[in-house]
Amino acid sequence: MLHEKEYFDGTSVKQDKRISAVKRGTALASNAVISSKHSKTDLLVELMAHMHDDEIKHVAMSDRMICREAHLKMDGLGNEDDRKQDDVYRVSQAARTLGRLLLASRRTVSMPNLSPTDVLEPHRFDLVVEVTKHMSFNKETPASNLGKTIGNLLTNACRSKYCLALREGDSKAKEDALAFQKLIEREWNDRVNRVALKRMQTEKRSKIPTIPLTADLQIFLRLSNQNY
User: Fold this and answer.
1) 146 and 130 in contact (C-beta within 8 Å)?
2) Is residue 222 part of a domain?
3) Which residue has the higher pLDDT, 98 or 217?
4) CA–CA separation, 148 vs 81, rounded Å?
């Protein structure tokens, strides 16, 4: 028996099976990218096992720069016995945040093949700032600390881009990485962090309970005296 969803959107059982097959293929492609471009793949495989299987995971784990950042962070955790309970979770969240930023940037400029290396170019700095604002505090339910987190992740990504370019002898990529990092150092605090702080302060003020009216206090005292 077909579900109501299948009637509603016109998706047949065969189509559902094809969609599932595509998803499995995407996951296999992500694993192939990791296996072909990274050493110590067991660290990234372990990380992938902790990540929710969705579009963000596939984007993050199919990009070599995000994978490199994730691998470095996983490597820095040391042996499994030395890790704290949520260490791997934090690495997973960092990778997913970069994946979300990349997806949002792609959709904003309608460039589905845009990579983090392409994003970290000086002429796209304003794009990254605006996308970060929408992800963090320019929405109904703000995540005000996210902007600062993204700034830190982008700084590390710039360093990874520079190191990759250094190994590959790509002078243009090195210049772009340094320039983008300089823009973060000079403008991110003013354009993102301070705006987020202002938003947090405004929300905090709006939640401060109002002082009761004198008439309300008089009624409260009179009722209290009657109870005694």
Assistant:
1) no
2) no
3) 98
4) 30
Domain that holds residue 44: 17-112
Which pLDDT value is given to residue 19?
A: 41
Asked, for residue 228, whether it belongs to a domain, the answer is no
Residue 3 within a domain: no
Residue pointed to by tokens 């969803």: 5
Distance in angstroms (rounded) separating the CA atoms of residues 120 and 177: 6
> 93 and 125 share a domain?
no
Q: What is the mean pLDDT of residues 121-128?
A: 96
Among residues 60, 80, 112, which one ends one of the domains? 112
What pTM, to 2 d.p., does this model score? Answer: 0.68
What single DSSP character describes residue 213? P
Q: Give the residue from 153, 136, 135, 154 showing the smallest Cα distance to 145.
A: 136
Has residue 159 been placed in a domain?
yes
Residue 17 pLDDT level (bands cut at 50, 70, 90): very low
